[in-house]
Write a structure and sequence with these properties.
five-stranded antiparallel β-sheet, globular, Dna Ligase, domain 1, 426 residues, alpha+beta, five-stranded mixed β-sheet, plasmid, 3 domains
């Protein structure tokens, strides 16, 4: 059976989520900022038209946004994540196998769909997603994931196609591969692009026609796979089951500089609580934590410092209390006064399934009592919202002066009952 994949991608996804709940945003420029309202990470076509570039710092474009009537929002990840889940539920009605590639992109297996019906199905998919969720999408179809990704790029950048491009159609394929530059190929970064240009590759067709052995020699096995994928020979299948997580990190930039030990301990304990939540969700544990914090290179008039330390646990754990205690121990171990720290985090690698991990002979943890306590903690936070119950060392959520800044965040319409839209009677 000939493999066929579709890649469906939400258009300016974060901005589209904001527009779903505020119809007044339909034709005005909209941008969404990164954590701590740092820089632009999502832009509508109208925002791009007034000159706002991806990654532009907010403090530099503030006046431009005011002059041009750009609506600006802080990141609202609770809303975006929930809207992404709703969009993927629609996808599952159209395909038995999907791979959620990112928060706004998913691959669908369309191998069972007859060639003559693929374009119509993709158009129906776009229309259904928009009607049911309000999120506009574009769909690219190809015989490999790389070609589906390329088709999606074509659909997004050429509005006259109606949001769908099908590269399984030989005529459509032949038309586009000679017109798209190599830099638009999935996985081709700046370094790879320079190598391809040195070989005289000016289009996707030129990359496709490379000798696979030469591509492997120049770009390793990744380059060889790329050539085959562009020829319609699948090398990458759908990952319908997410691979087991090997590592995990919780890092945050502070909304204001941290200069005292107590605040840093609170921040790292809060990060440890979030880490424990992630690990328990997947049944994993860790027996070591890397705790780090550093100053900002932008504070040029202040002394600079970047420090990290590894804290080893007696055995693998996902217990928030155990992780928070280890994190605060790591902070005390390397803390020095006299610095203004801008960011801190916890990183762990070599995660293992908790149930099959080796137990400690000396100083082992009481997993039975700790497990029941964590079940109760997670149940409370699921029912009353994340942060409803936290370790005392992590501080009360509303009192965290260092916490990420979201001054322009919209309501979390779909996940917080106290932030639901209110309809006023006339």
């Amino acid at each position: 059976m000939e493999r066929t994949y579709a890649l469906s991608d939400g258009n300016s996804f974060y901005c589209s989520c904001e527009r779903v709940f505020d119809p007044k945003l339909a034709r005005v420029p909209v941008i969404v900022l990164s954590n701590n309202d740092g820089c632009a990470i999502a832009r509508t076509a109208e925002a791009k038209a007034v000159g706002i570039k991806m990654g532009d710092p907010w403090f530099k474009i503030r006046q431009l946004c005011r002059d041009q009537g750009v609506r600006v929002y802080s990141s609202n990840y609770a809303l975006y994540g929930d809207m992404s889940a709703r969009v993927n539920e629609v996808y599952r009605r159209f395909s038995p196998r999907i791979e959620v590639y990112s928060i706004d992109e998913s691959f669908l297996d369309l191998s069972d769909v007859r060639p003559a019906e693929r374009f119509e199905l993709a158009s129906d998919l776009r229309g259904t997603v928009h009607r049911w969720t309000g999120v506009p999408t574009c769909v690219g179809i190809g015989s490999t994931k790389t070609l589906a990704k390329l088709a999606n790029h074509i659909a997004k950048t050429h509005p006259d196609l109606g949001g769908v491009c099908d590269l399984t159609d030989p005529q459509v394929y032949d038309h586009w591969v000679v017109r798209i530059p190599p830099g638009e190929i999935w996985g081709v970064g700046a370094s790879t692009l320079r190598k391809l240009e040195a070989l005289g590759c000016d289009s996707v067709a030129d990359v496709r026609d490379l000798d696979p052995r030469a591509a492997r020699k120049l770009l390793t096995v990744v380059g060889e796979r790329l050539v085959y994928e562009l020829r319609g020979i699948p090398c990458l299948d759908l990952e319908t089951v997410a691979p087991t997580r090997k590592g995990c990190a919780v890092t945050r930039s502070f909304s204001e500089r941290v200069e005292d030990l107590a605040t840093m301990e609170q921040a790292l304990a809060a990060h440890a609580a979030r880490l424990g939540e992630k690990l328990r969700r997947e049944g994993l544990g860790t027996d070591h934590l890397t705790v780090f914090f550093h100053t900002s290179e932008h504070d040029r008039d202040r002394p600079q410092r970047s420090i990290s330390t590894v804290v080893t646990l007696p055995e693998a754990s996902s217990d928030t209390l155990v992780l928070a205690k280890a994190a605060t121990f790591g902070v005390r171990k390397v803390w020095r006064d006299g610095y203004r720290y801008s960011k801190a985090g916890i990183v762990t690698t070599d995660l293992m399934p908790l149930e099959s991990s080796q137990r400690a002979l000396i100083g082992g943890l009481d997993r039975e009592i700790g497990g029941r306590l964590m079940e109760a903690l997670d149940a409370c936070n699921r029912r009353f919202g994340r942060g409803a119950v936290v370790p005392a060392s992590a501080g009360w959520t509303k009192d965290r002066t260092w916490s990420t800044k979201f001054e322009l965040r919209s309501p979390r319409y779909t996940t917080r009952i106290d932030e639901l839209p209110v309809v006023m009677a006339a």
